[in-house]
From TrEMBL:
This is Probable butyrate kinase. Gene3D superfamilies: 3.30.420.40. It comes from the Bacteria. Keywords: ATP-binding, Cytoplasm, Kinase, Nucleotide-binding, Transferase. Its EC number is 2.7.2.7. PANTHER family: ACETATE KINASE, BUTYRATE KINASE 2-RELATED. GO terms for cellular component: cytoplasm.
Length: 355
């Protein structure tokens, strides 16, 4: 019997949902939330009822009876550090997602809403490869400041899904591959995948790694802490310079790569300098992560929305092709990745993990 799975991916400005019959989309909806709608809530967890009701409405509008579902699967959030895989949403997980002690992130709602809908239907709720997936080796955790440990926070859902796809295309097991993968989206994570585990990755959420369309990435620390204590900026203003209004947005006023490339084609030297700088930083980070694998790589993989953009890909490639074969898997399909994670468990191909 075909399995039906409702998947939920809450983002900062939208909630994406899809209904899958096995791996085929029955319907897909992007429910947008205006800033005014979101700003009335004091934190992410208190948006639960609001987003859940919109999801139920959307499912009904598509004429689907929720009672036909086999599982609900949400994008997992800022949980305690856990290894990759599909997890049953249990009480402990709900507690951590609600208290958000590791931080506020829209994806915290994925597990909370999935569990609530699934409980009413008496079916399982799962999350798959949350941003908190942590498979780092110990040496990578050392930052240089004893009070600060490097965490593992990255685009685990897409990185793991693409890693499995690369393995399938190469006809080998993910557990037998060594690769560096760069997820190039609004945020950027560059990771070393070593025999099925992400043993090191830049902290994509918190100012580490290359700049991205919306994030600053690593900046020199001296000027940063002088700025922080100058009294000229609030904490929130500085956070935004790092996350949301950093990177290309800060330099060029847009996070849209297509618009920037058009400007470059029209001779805009400033656009070229900052866009080339982003490519340079990405390539440099990939080079650094190749050393994590001692240069013994099966391939380098570029993925995420920016991997569609040919000028950027060629600027990155020219600096890294000497290291290994470069494969490009443009875009991301987080909704399908969630459905596949739930399906692997429903079909008994993988044991669900317990948080
Ligand atoms: N088809 C495309 N061609 C060129 N550029 C693209 C394409 N699709 C997306 N981009 C660019 O990729 C960047 C990231 O967009 P995307 O929508 O993938 O990010 P996101 O999903 O919001 O972020 P994240 O992947 O960090 O969650 C933007 O600069 C966007 O303009
Ligand atoms: C760190 C991965 C998720 C995000 O960029 O928000």
């Amino acid at each position: 019997m075909a399995k039906y799975i409702l998947v939920i991916n809450p983002g900062s400005t939208s909630t994406k949902i899809a209904l899958f019959e096995e791996e085929s989309v029955v319907f897909e909806n992007k429910i947008s939330h205006s800033t005014e709608e979101i700003h009335v809530f004091r934190d992410v967890a208190s948006q639960f009822e609001f987003r859940k009701n919109l999801i139920i409405e959307a499912v009904k509008e598509n004429g689907f009876d929720l009672n036909r579902l086999d599982a609900v699967c949400g994008r997992g959030g800022l949980l305690k550090p856990i290894e990759g895989g599909t997890y049953i949403v249990n009480d402990e997980m709900i507690k951590d997602l609600t208290l958000a002690e590791r931080g506020e992130h829209a994806s915290n709602l994925g597990g909370i809403i999935a569990r609530d809908l699934a409980d009413d239907l008496n079916i399982p709720a799962y999350i798959v490869d949350p941003v908190a997936v942590d498979e780092m080796h110990d040496i990578a955790r050392i930052s240089g400041m004893p009070l600060i440990e490097r965490p593992s926070l990255f685009h685990a859902l897409n990185q793991k899904a693409i890693a499995r796809e690369v393995a399938k295309d190469k006809n080998v097991k993910y557990e037998n591959l060594n690769m560096v993968m760069a997820h190039l989206g609004g945020g950027i994570s560059v990771a070393a995948h070593h025999f099925g585990r992400v043993v090191d990755v830049n902290n994509a959420l918190d100012g580490e790694g290359p700049m991205s369309p919306e994030r600053s990435g690593t900046v020199p620390m001296g000027p940063l802490y002088k700025m922080a204590f100058s009294g000229d900026y609030t904490l929130d203003e500085i956070k935004k310079m790092n996350y949301g209004k950093g990177g290309l947005v800060a330099y060029l006023g847009t996070n849209d790569a297509r618009e920037i490339v058009e400007r470059i084609e029209n001779g805009d030297e400033k656009a070229k300098l900052y866009y080339d700088a982003m490519a340079y930083q990405i390539a440099k980070e990939i080079g650094a992560y190749a050393t994590v694998l001692k240069g013994k790589l099966d391939c380098i993989v570029l993925t995420g929305g920016l991997a569609h953009e040919k000028y950027l890909v060629s600027r990155i490639k020219e600096r890294i092709e000497f290291i290994s074969e470069v494969l490009v898997y443009p875009g991301e399909n987080e909704l399908l990745s969630l459905a596949q994670g739930a399906l692997r468990v429903l079909k008994g191909e993988e044991e669900p993990k317990t948080y």
